[in-house]
């Protein structure tokens, strides 16, 4: 009988390490296999069963999938380290007007009216575009995690204050889930090991007064009425 396992796909820039550590602590006998998937293929990979769950970027074709939003990434501009835009800690879209901008074929920033002058040549990948930025061919607009993933000493990046953010989500096939998928969803949502979906809330502890009243009610039901406190009678000596 094959050993049970769970396969998590994730797009470049996503960091599933925290979830992987938690999974290893809770399920040391069930391997969590991590697979990097291209952003354009992420939804299809989970839909076809190549991976059990996937961390993907939105927007995407999520038909037939259940989607849990995770976080919104800051959009940044990657520029040479000595570029004029590095004078400010944060820039705006207007600062990129007139700048040559690279748009790779695997672009993941959903910004239809992005600023800048598009370079006619479109590199195949973000990694290729990074090389062109280093060569002085233009700037590049990407999610912050991709700028960090492809970090180079001769390049830097600046957040674009008025740019749209880049949503990241967890997706899996819609419908009933296996116990392993449910467990992973719980880890992502921050559920504790002792909790589970549909588990009843723990009964709160009773106060001392509530316990006393409960005892009195039980005695009354048994025909024993609690005597009211009063002065103690002294016996004869």
The quaternary structure here is single chain
Number of helices: 6
CATH architecture descriptor name of the largest domain? 3-Layer(aba) Sandwich
Query: Helix proportion of residues, in percent?
Result: 10-25%
Strand order of the largest sheet: 2-1-3-10-4
Computed CA radius of gyration, to the nearest angstrom: 29 Å
Compact description:
The chain is of the alpha/beta class and about 240 residues long. It has helices at about 15-25, 40-45, 125-135, 145-150, 180-190, 210-220; strands spanning about 5-10, 30-35, 55, 65-75, 75-80, 100, 115-120, 140-145, 155-160, 165-175. The chain has 2 domains: about 5-70 and about 165-190, Periplasmic binding protein-like II (D-Maltodextrin-Binding Protein, domain 2), CATH 3.40.190.10; about 75-160, D-Maltodextrin-Binding Protein, domain 2 (3-Layer(aba) Sandwich).
Describe this structure in words.
InterPro entries: LysR_subst-bd (IPR005119). Residues 225-237 have a biased composition (Basic residues). GO terms for molecular function: DNA binding; DNA-binding transcription factor activity. One of its GO terms (cellular component) is protein-DNA complex. Residues 214-224 have a biased composition (Low complexity). The chain has 237 residues and is α/β, with parallel strands linked by helices. The chain has two domains: 6-72 and 166-189, Periplasmic binding protein-like II (D-Maltodextrin-Binding Protein, domain 2, 3-Layer(aba) Sandwich), CATH 3.40.190.10; 75-159, Periplasmic binding protein-like II (D-Maltodextrin-Binding Protein, domain 2, 3-Layer(aba) Sandwich), CATH 3.40.190.10. The protein contains six helices and ten strands, in the order E-H-E-H-E-E-E-E-E-H-E-H-E-E-H-H. The chain has helices at 17-26, 42-47, 126-134, 144-149, 179-189, 208-221, and strands at 6-10, 32-36, 53-57, 65-73, 75-80, 100-102, 117-118, 139-143, 155-159, 166-173. The strands form two sheets. The protein has a five-stranded mixed beta sheet with strand order 2-1-3-10-4. Strands 7-6-8-5-9 form a five-stranded mixed beta sheet. Strand 1 (6-10), helix 1 (17-26) and strand 2 (32-36) form a beta-alpha-beta unit.
């Amino acid at each position: 009988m094959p050993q049970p396992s769970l396969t998590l796909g994730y797009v470049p820039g996503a960091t599933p390490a925290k979830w992987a550590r938690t999974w290893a602590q809770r399920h040391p006998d069930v391997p969590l296999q991590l697979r990097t998937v291209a952003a354009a293929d992420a939804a299809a990979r989970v839909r076809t069963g190549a991976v059990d769950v996937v961390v993907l970027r939105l927007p995407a074709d999520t038909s037939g999938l259940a989607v849990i939003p995770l976080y919104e990434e800051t959009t940044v501009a990657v520029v040479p380290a000595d570029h004029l835009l590095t004078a400010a800690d944060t820039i705006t879209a207007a600062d990129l007007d007139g700048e040559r901008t690279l748009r790779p074929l695997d672009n993941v920033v959903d910004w239809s009216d992005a600023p800048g002058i598009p370079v006619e040549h479109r590199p195949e990948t973000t990694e290729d575009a990074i090389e062109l930025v280093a060569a002085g061919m233009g700037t590049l607009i990407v999610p912050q995690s991709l700028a960090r993933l492809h970090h180079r000493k001769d390049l830097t990046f600046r957040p674009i204050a008025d740019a749209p953010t880049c949503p990241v989500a967890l997706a899996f096939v819609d419908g009933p889930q296996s116990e392993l998928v449910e467990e992973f969803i719980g880890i992502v949502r921050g559920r504790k090991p002792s909790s589970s979906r549909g588990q009843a809330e723990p009964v709160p502890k009773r106060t001392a007064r509530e316990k006393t009243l409960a005892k009195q009610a039980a005695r009354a039901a048994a025909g024993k009425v609690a005597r009211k406190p009063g002065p103690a009678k002294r016996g004869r000596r």
